[in-house]
Amino acid sequence: MSEEQSGAEFEVSAKAGYHHGDLRSQLLNAVRQLVEEKGSENFSIAEAARKAGVSSAAPYRHFNDKPEILKAVVMQAMEAKAIEMRRVMEPFPEGSLDRINALGKCYIDFARNHPGMFRLVFGITESHENDNELRELGAKVFGIVVEAVAKNLGISTDDPEALKRAYLLWTMVHGHSWLLIDGKAKQQGIDFPEDLLLAEISERILG
Q: Does the predicted TM-score (pTM) go above 0.70?
């Protein structure tokens, strides 16, 4: 995915006809849609091929099996999220809490807008814990948060304090994201304004 494509544009488009040369992207689009509709466990490669408008054999020109396709979708989603995270920070002064809040909202919006992909990303990173590509990409995405925290605190990204506070922020927005997409907060009648919630979290952890 190019750097011109933001996470906000990471939307599954309506089915389009197959054009020569874009089989891989067409298939990944179809898989993303099926992940949102059915979950990652409940469709086959053949079904993804039909949705992409290609033959059932076509996916094997690029991928060996379904896990390999799902990994490619996750890698693409994580890259898109990293691009979007950097984009949402740009309007705010470097080192400001506004930048931290923007990152939190970006994370939550990804979960809200793409709950199937959100579940897949964290499911596959557990089942592929020794996959160097996924680990490196995960570190790259989290590194954006560590960098923003370090600049807010005026310390190096190598300082353990930057890592600790970035992790505290991550646990808060990650937990909120799961409660949101699982409907648990709504079931308990919890409905705080999200912007105020993020502002208080960042103030308590970094203020």
A: yes
